[in-house]
Amino acid sequence: MTWTLHGTNAQEGDLVQLVGLRHKSFLLSLKAGAVFQTHRGVIKHDDLIGKPWGSQIFSHNGSPFFLLQPALGDVIRELPRSSQILYPKDIGYILVTMGIGPGQHVMEAGTGSGSMTTAFSFAVGKEGHVTSYEIRPDMQTRARRNLEQLGLDDRVTLKLRDIREGFDETGMDAFFLDVQYPHEYIPQVRAALKPGGFFGSIVPTTNQVIRLLTELRLNRFAFIDVVETILRFYKPEPLHFRPVDRMVAHTGYLVFGRPIIEDETQTSPDLLREIGLLGLEERDENSDDSEASPDLEE
């Protein structure tokens, strides 16, 4: 199977998306002679092979569909899973903030069903690689199948281990930690991540954020940010433009940081406070307590 986002016509082996009424969608891999059966009718793969992307097609009983190339978000939403997956709104922000791109070696702990693994392997391209650790054999098996279905398994190494034991790799470009108690594994993460590399994690509750922030500072991580992404869709109707009735609100707190090497002979407390290595409670009486988001600074 081939999942591609280039080309003008559907080819045998392509992963395609069929979108029908009420935005009901199906993902399937085209195979000559095969038949796709759904409660909305039967569609022959041969009728799709060679069709231009964006074409409207019909099942045997007249149900309409559009033939599309699935985006990364479509693929992640449709992944078979036995655990909670990350939402595209969080995944997109993670990829951008952690600078994930072609050629990088990215590490992940907490493979789960492989949604974040899929996004990382897609982003690093054929030149890059993803190493993902998981402690549950059944979850790793699920993730492996999902990656194989998308043709991304050659970019990923899956390892089964309790990460308390540490990691085999060092000097990694980025590390994403998606486990129940991430604050317990920051020393192991620090040992695997290169100085100045990118760290990211997601936790559902505020008390977990607080514990994680404390451990990051103790292990000399700086440039620490905590973010919650809120995404709201609107009805695309010119005469009735307004927010949709429902939305996915809180999905987790994203925590980012970067391990640094501090020169203890020439330490600047003011700079260390600005980059988050020292906390507000450590400010002296003459310090300026004003704060601003980095994006709001002029």
UniProtKB/TrEMBL annotation:
Keyword Methyltransferase: yes
GO BP term (any one): tRNA methylation
Entry GO CC: tRNA (m1A) methyltransferase complex
Organism: Longilinea arvoryzae
Name this polypeptide is given: tRNA (adenine(58)-N(1))-methyltransferase TrmI
InterPro entries in UniProt: SAM-dependent_MTases_sf, TRM61_C, tRNA_MeTrfase_Gcd14
Assembly: Homotetramer composed of a dimer of dimers.
Catalytic activity: adenosine(58) in tRNA + S-adenosyl-L-methionine = N(1)-methyladenosine(58) in tRNA + S-adenosyl-L-homocysteine + H(+)
Function: Catalyzes the S-adenosyl-L-methionine-dependent formation of N(1)-methyladenine at position 58 (m1A58) in tRNA.
Lineage, highest ranks first: Bacteria, Bacillati, Chloroflexota, Anaerolineae, Anaerolineales
Membrane-crossing residue ranges in chain numbering: none
EC number assigned by the record: 2.1.1.220
UniProt KW RNA-binding keyword: no
Record-listed S-adenosyl-L-methionine binding positions: 134, 162, 178
Residue intervals of the tRNA (adenine(58)-N(1))-methyltransferase catalytic subunit TRM61 C-terminal domain: 77-235
Protein family according to the UniProt entry: Belongs to the class I-like SAM-binding methyltransferase superfamily. TRM61 family.
UniProt xrefs under Pfam families: GCD14 (PF08704), TrmI-like_N (PF14801)
An example Gene Ontology molecular-function term: tRNA (adenine(58)-N1)-methyltransferase activity
SUPFAM superfamilies: S-adenosyl-L-methionine-dependent methyltransferases
